[in-house]
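user: can you give me the structure for this one chain? tokens are fine.
assistant: on it. calling the predictor now.
[tool input]
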Amino acid sequence: MTETMPVSAEYHNIGRRVPKFDAVHKATGQLKFVGDIRLPRMLDIKILRSPHPHAEIVRIDITRALAIPGVKAIITHEDAPAHPYGREFALPPEYMPRDNFVIPDKARYVGDVVAAVAATSVEIAAKAVAAIEVEYRKLRAALDPFEAIAPGAPQVHRTVFWGDERDDLSGNILRTVKMGVGDIDKGFAEADLVIENTFAVPKQQQSPMERRCIVVDPRPDGRLDVWATTQSIHGLRHNMARALGIPYSRINVHQVFLGGAFGARLDMNVDEPIAALLAMKAGQPVRLQLTREEDMMSTSRHPATVTLKTGARRDGTLVAHQMVAHVDTGAYACSGEWVTKCMGGWFMSMYRVPNQDFTGHVIYTNTPPAAGFRGFGNPQANVPVESHMDMLADKLGIDPVEMRLRNYIREGDAYYAQGPNVIDYIKSCGVEEILTEGARRIGWHRRAQLAQQPKTQKVLKGIGMGRAFHTSGCGQANEVSDILEYAGSIIKMNEDGTASLTTALIDMGTGNLMGHAQIVAEVLGLRVEDVIVNTTDTDSSPYDVVTHASRSTYVSGMVAKLCAEKVRTILCEMAGRILEADPGDIVLVGGRAQVTGPSVAGASQPSISIMEITRTAQMRQWGTIMAEESRRAVTTASHFTCKFIEVSVDTETGHISIDKVVAGSDVGQVINPVLVEGQIHGGAAQAFGYALLEEIQVDRETGRTLNADYLNYKIFTSRDMCRDFDVFFAATHEDSGPFGAKGIGEAANNDGAGAVVNAVANALGVHIKELPLTPERVLKALGKI
């Protein structure tokens, strides 16, 4: 069941349930993804990967591989640029950790790149890869984060660059992030109750349906055309140019729809520059598509061990809150530092606590690199915090919902947005509404009764909840900062009265560009189907940083709205010329420009269709009706969610099933309920997988990933989701957002796992502090194994 806010009579397109414009094309297989691109003379690429978690490349012999008919080019570390590069799209080069090499001369995890082959078929390329002879000098590996920071541990990296600054490491801690307010020791001294717990959250794979793929076509003029599974065409161009050591202008990245991403395509991987090097060397187009195993090993959520210590007064008022996190970034930095910064920001911004302290250690290990994943550090912080809050409430004898209502941050409060360097203030907040209404809908009063059920029953029921927040983008007041946040749009009116929108924003399958079309249509008085969203590239589009951080609607959508308002001004000015009226007295509605204001008795006000305006502008040579807008965001607009969940636990098998979900969200004005509901359902599925099923397992002896395929790595599917799924929205309006809207994409994922953990604890009478909640862990908690 889904209950949405009523559509305001003020709007014609905003708040309406408009199907995604690409839905039919996707369902019928007509929409082209990167993997569907085929170019004349295109070669296929295969990569030789290290079988060792830590090894120096002593010798590579490619003689036999080159002799195989059909092999056109082979590259090793000797052919690749020797300078390190960074992978993150949203960071300026000056703030980006640089520890990646296109092809390193030292393998740092099982699967690290050793060489790459381009050949006339995938089969020939694979045969050539098998023919390459490599002599390795195996090194001791650091496969566990706590072993990696112990004295005498083998060092994964000895040097990392931050911009142009060289950092010589003396261990495997990339960075230690510290944040704090007040006096933490004083806070604990004032507390009536102090509790401490340690939680472990796993390495989760993003699992987009589409495998990573890149196509590179070398032009005769030396430029490169690139199609890639990426969340940012401009970010990819920048990072590829820096990795290859060539000018940005030599690369043109084309916008393509994605078959899911969830952060897996948030950064550049090694594959894009490898494909570019092989294309340039062979002088032919190339295509590299990872196997499912390669794709699953290329990125994941950062696993972490989190220790929480919290002090409260007897009435439930929080006075001290402390978190120490050990975050495993894998073999390369990628977004490890920024994820850890965000963990600190999310932790310190959930509740009003005068004394808070966060320490986060970012640790290198010889395991596959981790990267951004929906929530970007938020689930790693949220699961411990929300579990911890329930435990604290139980010890104080306070209802968990009431505990949260007494302590949540609210309108007017400051919060950390995306880490320690960005502070913003809450301008709209529906937390109280979603908590109280969610409790009513789930039947929260039954929770106390379920806690008393005999633990000898075969099936135990439990009800739990968790709440979360996230920011809509990464905007901040400072013009120069350590994160980029600006967007651009171009809108052109066509001679038939339709509008063409150009934006570099990537649609990852969520339909965010459909929301942009609704925003533009609302401003210009058009039907949604009269707004054409162009497919573009970096040559012809204004910069947009990346599709991430719940920014698509709030940041890029606002820029599209501002651009449409410029076009509206031009249309009204031209309509005024034609109708001999003041442009300020003209409104655009229903595809027409209508004169408003007082009229002669009995006479209707004159109007003209937008198509007539555009045709007249052409015939009279007034010029193309178009505008552009490029602007950075200066605020972030927090959006809030909660999930109330009912579960059943089989005490004989340890299996957990989710029976009912109530999902409340404060997203401001809903632009399109279809899209927002899809985000909430999808985010919940990933959160439930995080809680119950998903964990990338790395053998602590060999460094090999044990379950890099869907036979052995299980995710939540539509068949696992419960049918009793109730969605509702708070009645809030965010003045800084387009038509009052905020984001939702990240927060839809943040609260679900903690809610599941608390529901299971209600059923079992004990909190399990390590995810996922596998049958073995459940049975162990019940004392049955």
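assistant: here you go. The first strand starts at residue 43 and ends at 49. The longest helix spans residues 552-579.
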